[in-house]
Amino acid sequence: MLHVQCLLGGRWQEAESYLSIACRMVYTLRGHVFEGQQAPSTSDPSPNKETRHVRNLFWLCYVSDKDLSLRTGQPPLLADIYCDLTLPESYLSSYTYLRGLEEPSRLGDTHLASLTPHLWGDAQLGCLKEKIYRLLYSVHATSDKDNRLLVHIRQLDDEIERWRLSVPLDFRPALSVSPDTLIVTRETKPPQRKRYFHLLLEYWYLMIFVHTTVRRYDAHTVIGDGSHDLHSVIHSSYDLSLEAGRSTLRCLRVFTKTLSDEHLWFLIFYTTNAAISLFLNIVIHPEEVDGQLDLELLISAANTLRMVKPRGAVPDEGARIQQHSDFIMWLVWLGSCAITKEREGNGHHG
């Protein structure tokens, strides 16, 4: 609970320290071991409830562990090799009940207690995040040759796509999305809408994370007939990461109006990540025609964050939100300088 509270308040370092304790505790409780589905006992259901509860705590820790691992660059605490990652048999049923679930739900409702819990993001994506860290950011990955890097990026992209296609159509994220193309209607229940938005943000984040890594590849060292095809592959990764970043920023205002205050710092994290992705492209390729449009997206994102009302119960939240907004505006200024310098240089050559 302390870990989650720190996450919701955007206090990442404190959240990380509490998570390490929680992971050790869940190991001690054997939550990392899947004991299978047991027939419910009518005489004493408490052992089954306890096992289920501990297993749910494991998944909560597991998903958070993978998130923080990618954010901090530190190895995961709940390594896959030591954990049984068997999902509950009814895991995908959460998509079914979310379509008709109203908010707020009543605590103690026996029907809700029997439902399979759904987590921020997705448990299956948690498994994929460990693989992303291992193949792209571990010590061994950073020493791999460039051709191995491209193979791993392609492999991870395929796995992300398989996950995306496994999600029911009315929850399924897409790469290029605007507020007008979000698959929500007035009839969409709030829990379904929130779940859909969560999956969108997670999908875009991973697409940025995986495909931005291609910038480590030194394409200038490639010569010969294969260089053109290789450059096409690299630019394809650029395009995927940039479109994911643009979709994140295009829909930011909708997200801030729809998601509750407790999701604020998750939104700020995804926004900052997307903003950095677009900024890097502007600085590296200031001549591209989309640069000015990307600057406008960054300005819009900074203004959207500036309009967010801080919660009085969260210390210094207003100042911290302002810092993130100012940071994005700083990226705008630097990006504008890069574009202006490029134009002036072309003018002199002309």
UniProtKB/TrEMBL annotation:
GO molecular function annotations of the record: DNA binding; DNA-binding transcription factor activity; zinc ion binding
Superkingdom classification of source: Eukaryota
CDD domains xref list: fungal_TF_MHR
Residue ranges of domain Xylanolytic transcriptional activator regulatory in the record: 15-94
Keywords: DNA-binding, Nucleus, Transcription, Transcription regulation
SMART domains: Fungal_trans
Pfam families: Fungal_trans
GO CC terms in record: nucleus
Subcellular location per the Swiss-Prot or TrEMBL entry: Nucleus
Ribosomal protein keyword on record: no
Entry-linked InterPro entries: AtrR-like, XnlR_reg_dom
GO BP of this protein: DNA-templated transcription
Name of the protein described by the UniProt record: Xylanolytic transcriptional activator regulatory domain-containing protein
Organism: Colletotrichum higginsianum
